[in-house]
Amino acid sequence: MLLLGASACPAAGSGTPPYDSTADTVFDLIEADDPTSFRCLTDIGRGARQIWDKRVNGEPVVEAFLFTADYSDGASIEIAVNPEFATVDRARAEAMRHAVPLGRLPSLLRAGIGRFSIHGGNEGFHAGKGQIVVYAERTTRRIAQAHLEESLFHEAVHATLDDEHRMAAAWQEAQRRDGGFLTSYAQATPDREDLAETALFAFALLHHPERFPPVDTQTVREAVPNRLAYIAKLFPREQPLTSEAQDLRPCPGDHS
Question: 155 in helix, strand or coil?
């Protein structure tokens, strides 16, 4: 879910989309045993952070538990955990629960995340430019559904790609030429959710086609061919999804 203001966009297509939302499909497109680029989590103490919280419909300042998650492609993400988790050990466990699956996203998406914040509760995930906010009980639900990585992918598109692409002329033209939408969620707010919804399916077709049943592969390709072509340029099949950085800063206890 996006946390940005609405903008003008092409009108939604009149047809019924084949899926309700990417979060509610049965597809496990990014699997829990896929490789992760996560390297280490460093405790950096406590600090005041202003973080939007759906439970209070506001953006309070909290004295968060703070960690830095480092990845083999050079990405470094601050993870801020709500003080309601009470102890640094509980906060660290919650940070780890998200830091490892974040490492299964493509480098392109991870590079745009500056802060990843964790509250308690069961609210839906949301994101804005450079940041993602999640809720621990909803994470537990997503893990049980084998959909945590898919939900993180969706939010990472908001955090990383929306600013440049969701209202780009070429993307809007692809929407217009396709006419319809893949999901009802995308159709309801095409300026906000269509890129994030479509990008996950496009990514899977490009890099994990075996995880899509053939009939659904055909459905997706026929529904949004122009948007698939647009997203294929962002995640080209011939390039590795995760880059490997040189001269990475040492992890705690790494004396190599």
Answer: helix
